[in-house]
Amino acid sequence: MNSTKPMHLKGNANQNNDDREGNHGNSRRDSSGSYQEATVYNPTYTKSNSRKKKKRNTDTRLPIDKASWFSILTFSWVTPLFIKGWKGTLKTEDLTVASYKDSSEMNSHRLETRWAHILTKHGSKDASLFSALLYAMRSGVICSTIALTISTSTSLVSSTVVMRRLIAFTQSPEPDFFYGSLLVVLFTSLEFTRTACVSFALYLTERVAGRIRAALVAMVYHKILRLRSLKGKSVGELINLCTNDGQRVFDLCRSLPMGIVGIFICVLSLIASYVILGWTAVLGTTSYIVFYPLQMFLSKLITRFRQHCIKITDKRVRLMSEVITCIKLIKMYAWEIPFAKQIGAIRNQERSVLEKTGYVQSLSTSMLPVVSIMSASFTIILHTSLGYDIDVAQLSEFQNSDIRRNSRFLTLPKI
Length: 415
Prior knowledge:
Low-confidence stretches: 1-58, 407-415
């Protein structure tokens, strides 16, 4: 006699049967007796959503390539990375892949193509690698120079013309509100333009310098791979060529636009100082002439220390290569301690030279604000001692138009 069970009892029986079969309610059994996961229909799942999700997860481009102009000028594209680093330790997966535009493959190919053209045109004797580097970074240097020139011009106009008129406006007995508002808007616009141009120049010079360094190091690496022998060159010299010399080229690319703009700043500052205070300001600001020979002496001293450090580094690398090659012999005769002391002594000598280089470079950098303050003080003392009067507006205008306001452009690159 067949008895029919109610629907709720059938549901419980099916559920118990699924439990007995190992909770394979959403699975199906194949011919071999094993269970396979059944496909569950999801109405919200489509191929387009899957593609979008996959594209979003695999987008590892550098954030600066996707950033807007406002994000580039304010450097806000790197803010999420700073926040993540502030909350915890950054991991490898937190960093994005470098842009292909900044890769050594693309930039080295462009540099090698230009270098091959120069070799074909001038020959191996008259060819200059520096001209190839200038050709590779010409667009970045030109744009950075233009941006820094605009920044300097707006800084001088806002600090000399607009600021002086604002001071005179505050001292007038019957000030015009519309005229004062116009001066404030003009001053704000000029300062915003100056800041935007400086940010753009900094972004452009850093990125162009990184591309040039990557291209040059890759070019040297490819050349080393094609050589059958080092032809008298040591391993330390090759390592120094890819590290120290590459960093010096990076510093040159970063400082070259500032050096070009520095000449323009000197001329504008001398003209503005002469208009404000007269010939006494010209005598005071020419004290920077003494600053340049001292800067050149310190730069040459830094270069001499670096050349001496190259020899010590080469000696240490050679000794380390011998130790690695003959490690079995050193272990057999228990020569680990004597070799370790010898390598340690060479390393201490190398560190001493690097410390001297750092001290000289710090001295060269710290001299800049001291010289600017001495120049301004000498100018004011000379102006007042000759019987000339100076008011608050002239003092403020001279202080803002003096070379020391833009003296960061007058430092020589340590290359």
